[in-house]
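Re: the 166-residue chain
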Amino acid sequence: MRKTLLLLHLLSISICLSQNEKPSRDSFKLEIVADSLNNYSMDVNASPYFVKDKILQIYPSENLFIEAEIVSDTISTMKVVEKNQNPDKTIEIEFVQKAEDRSNIITMLTVKNPFDRKLIYKAVMYTPKGDYWKPTSTIPVRPKLLAFETWPHSIITLVLSDWEFE
């Protein structure tokens, strides 16, 4: 009887913890300022946040909690979760566009590093002006701090990859 109760308790904990996982975004309408005269709009279908292992696609207006598992000083897995229940291993990412003045468009990515080591990653962007993916530079995120990346133009989506410690 005791073993059965323990097994049921462990099963319920496992179910509760897995309910925090959010592998896919809900569909939504993306509307951003493209330039001083035009807007850009598209329907973003329900889709996985991670398009492949540790390759994250993010759109303006998204604010994500990325829980990372570390094995032998390496980020082994990453998953999007609803709530930051494990702040010591959850990367927080916010992607926004600010365009109060259409002549001064700013797209900003904020990355919060919960780890004791510098966090690095690579990024490519897709913009309303181009019909291709373009690499962009990123700066390492110092331990336990935030990093801000800004671009003086619109970005439809970013893909962030090659997550590792420096």
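The helical segments are 2-18.
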